[in-house]
Batch of 3 targets.
Target 1
Amino acid sequence: MPLPVLTINGLAMSFGASEVLKNVSFSVAPGETMGLFGKSGSGKTTIGRCIVWLEKPTGGEILVHGMDILSMRKKEFRKLRPKIQMIFQHPETSLDPRMKAFENLIEPLKLHSGLKKDALLKRGEELAKLTGLRPEHLARYPGQLSGGEIQRIVLARIMALSPDFIVADEPTSMLDVSVQAQILHLMQKLQRETGVSYLLISHDLEVLRKICHRIAYLENGTITSIENINRGIRI
Ligand SMILES: Nc1ncnc2c1ncn2[C@@H]1O[C@H](COP(=O)(O)OP(=O)(O)OP(=O)(O)O)[C@@H](O)[C@H]1O
């Protein structure tokens, strides 16, 4: 068995007196999509936010490639951070509304890749193609794009960092059904091409059953069961 990309052991989280997560444990293998299902308020987003260091849990361990990220120093975590990404329910909040789509797309490359201008533009065009974006989309501002097109830009930006693991928090819940299917197909294609793993958070079991390899069920901050989906990952 390959080492899991992500292992969560006994994760606990309280906000004041309110205990939101209790003894949450699961792991995600390379190239796997793990679903995280639960009702509103069950603690799904809190788990995702703990994984990317947006919240500090009150107990437990989070291991990425076997390394405990909660005991890491800021500098050490910063090196690992490009490899662990999160997509949010409102993807437009990840983009700068004053920059055109292509500028938004290449921004992480400018910050992290060290590529010179020509190579950077070429890589940006490759990522746009990979995520099914057309030149006319790239010339627009985020406010002039549809929800599905914005989610494609967000995915392209994230793929620019060659992540090993993506927490996708309700990435399609704001989209209508046909666009939802396109984005899920795109996520599957990116997984086939790069081996990226996903933690796909949703309160829509139908969506999770379509693309997950396993689904963890969360109730009141506790994992009650993990279901194996015994079929291929294609929709
Ligand atoms: N920063 C915070 N301070 C206090 N309570 C919080 C904070 N963040 C989340 N909570 C509470 O923790 C609980 C779990 O929230 P969380 O957002 O993780 O649930 P969720 O399952 O993702 O819900 P939804 O599906 O509605 O997004 C909720 O009761 C929420 O009010």
Note: The first helix runs from residue 44 to 51.
Target 2
Amino acid sequence: MQEGYTTADGRKIGGVVMEMKNITLRFGGVVAIKDISFDIREGEIRAIIGPNGAGKSSMLNVISGFYIPSEGEVWYRGAKRPQLRPYEVAQQGIARTFQNIALFEGMSVLDNVMTGRLGHMKSGLIAQALWKGKAEAEEVANREVAERVIDFLEIQHIRKTPVGRLPYGLKKRVELARALAAEPKLLLLDEPMAGMNVEEKEDMSRFILDVNDEFGTTITLIEHDMGVVMDLSDRVVVMDYGKKIGDGTPDEVRNNQAVIDAYLGVSND
Ligand SMILES: Nc1ncnc2c1ncn2[C@@H]1O[C@H](COP(=O)(O)OP(=O)(O)OP(=O)(O)O)[C@@H](O)[C@H]1O
């Protein structure tokens, strides 16, 4: 699959954007990730699933630069990624959402979404004082991007509302909006459906598909619930006890005996 592939619904998936090569991650004596390799391709929706404690969050944290792997290499856009701080990874066009919503509760939806533009703001405080006009033009341009994302995710009606007053499902959508405002090349979603009711899950699924379709954003999500991601994803990595036990299309992993056993709690040792 070096040259990409065409999905069942006719979308063209490109070459490799990110490649995880033999990643191992240890926390003292705990091996959270054991020698895992997989790739993420341009334009695809790639899921990482697995039961509790499988190592999904740890893997997402390696991708986002929050954890440095104990062994192995992360390749991004054809180059081995050096040790970077998370904000430097973000500057390379990787944005993420968090499992436990990380928004400013007292701030409005619009202001929260604007924080997603911080990496794009070039004018520092001194520049703002010296060249007020330039800083203002930049602010207007950033606001336009934020407003476009707000329209796209259909949260115009709450743009002035403090986030703390919103129900859970809408907060998750605001978090998605903030990540999108960064105009990422690779969007990482940490359990985007966790804690949602059926209707909220359907809405979130639709928005994830729309983002991928409209902006061509490559998306990697981790999810506990296998059912939720099967309709959404092009390819799925399945983890269990830190190991990769499956990797392929939803149909392939659904019929993989090791995956079935892991979800039924059968030991593979
Ligand atoms: N910071 C840490 N320090 C020590 N151990 C950790 C740390 N983070 C994760 N672990 C351990 O690594 C293993 C994998 O955890 P991780 O949170 O990555 O799994 P997960 O698949 O995301 O689980 P869940 O679905 O419950 O969120 C677990 O045994 C966990 O206890």
Note: The mean pLDDT is 89.
Target 3
Amino acid sequence: MLDDTIAAIATPLGEGAIGIVRVSGPEAIAIAEKIFVSRTGVDWRRQGSHRLFYGLVVDPDTGQPVDEVLLGVMYAPRTFTREDVVEFNCHGGIVPLRRTLELVLQHGARLAEPGEFTRRAFLNGRLDLAQAESILDIIRAKTDAGLAVAMSLLSGELSSRVRRFQDQLLGILAQVEADIDFPEEDIEVASREDLKISVLALMGDLEELIHQARFGKVFREGLRTVIVGRPNVGKSSLLNALLREKRAIVTEIPGTTRDVIEEVVNIRGIPVRLADTAGLRDTDDIVEKIGVERSRELVKAADLVLVVLDASTGLTSEDRAVLELVDEQKGIILINKSDIGDGEGLARQVADLYPDKPVEVISVKTGYGLSKVEEAIERLVLGGQATASQMPLVSHVRHKQALVRCHEHLQEVLRALSAGENIDLVAIDLRAAWEALGEITGDTVAEDIVDRIFQDFCIGK
Ligand SMILES: Nc1nc2c(c(=O)[nH]1)N(C=O)[C@@H](CNc1ccc(C(=O)N[C@@H](CCC(=O)O)C(=O)O)cc1)CN2
Ligand SMILES: Nc1nc2c(ncn2[C@@H]2O[C@H](COP(=O)(O)OP(=O)(O)OP(=O)(O)O)[C@@H](O)[C@H]2O)c(=O)[nH]1
Ligand SMILES: [Mg+2]
């Protein structure tokens, strides 16, 4: 399968300044020789790798020029895929790109599957699996911090950490196997204690990484945040204020927002997926009822819930119903409209009723307290543990799960060591721990998991 040549349009379809048709595989150069005509007199075949050449894409059957291009030429094995790669930098329109791709396909390539270029980079050993996954994270990053986490993954920081763990495990395993080989040498009791100490140290390091994963996931996927409250308390006004644009419609009529409005905002480097919802109340209006139902679902799935109350009306029974709804959630209670009501008074009342939740007094209208809201979000996400400048190494659930499995096997190693069980059993769990780590780098991962990872990529990536 790796001996064929793949091609795809690697840029978004639409009108743009430039669009790229990417080709990788053993026929890449031969295809370019058939359809590319240099216009500079330079013999592009006689130049080095990683160069651009100016010319035309020409249909060799008709002699018709298709587009004016820059041809990028990169020779194996020092390329992204470790195969020969050519890239047609076309004018960024659907027709020139499609026509160029068609010609490439007619002359020896087949259409690439989603993520297949990156998959080849992985299969040919240029990237490990975690690095390959980082490429999609780079594309999808929502904030600078999100991008920095992805770039750290691409650079192999997590991978080399994982490999160090694996080396340590192999060291421990070597000791264990020495015990298996020379059981008569009566070193067992002492060495069991030593082994336990080494295993415990490793588990501590794993725990630290696992703990960081919470922040890592937020940087990668965004913090799912829902603004809830009864109608007219200022939820949409809050969304607009945090977004710094008039995105949602705001009126003095309760029940203004009916559909959920979602936007991503950058709050102190944290990508926050903000959803503004329909005001929560018992209602007979069919459309509004559906909206209320949606809000409840969003609250259930949220990482953070911003409950908005209205200082000018005080706490109503509807407010209490909303607060009950989010009682089990991570919530921040916001007392809005403090410019026209007793915000501090209501804040004290609410703090007595819900002592575990942070309460902030704000006025979206005057801007009072909004920076405290941003601070509270930052505190909640980072929990005083990390700052946006200390990048978490683990940002994928998949990676975290592998670390957790490794940790579980080590737990079992400890148990077996303490219980004086057969040293062979200890060795088996140590190997299982080593293999769990290999899923991160892809050394020991199942084919279907690799399939699933690359399915999420775009065509041409
Ligand atoms: N036009 C274009 N832009 C692109 C890419 C691409 O493939 N083509 N990329 C891809 O998605 C990203 C850049 N990543 C790349 C990674 C490695 C190599 C590469 O040729 N690596 C060689 C180094 C060669 C040398 O040292 O001279 C190698 O690793 O062996 C190229 C691009 C983003 N921009
Ligand atoms: N005085 C004052 N008025 C505010 C404040 N925040 C919002 N309002 C006003 O309150 C009214 C309702 O605001 P919205 O943002 O539409 O409220 P909502 O919670 O989204 O309402 P629904 O979508 O109907 O649930 C509007 O007239 C806003 O201008 C504030 O801090 N002070
Ligand atoms: Mg609204």
Note: The mean pLDDT is 91.
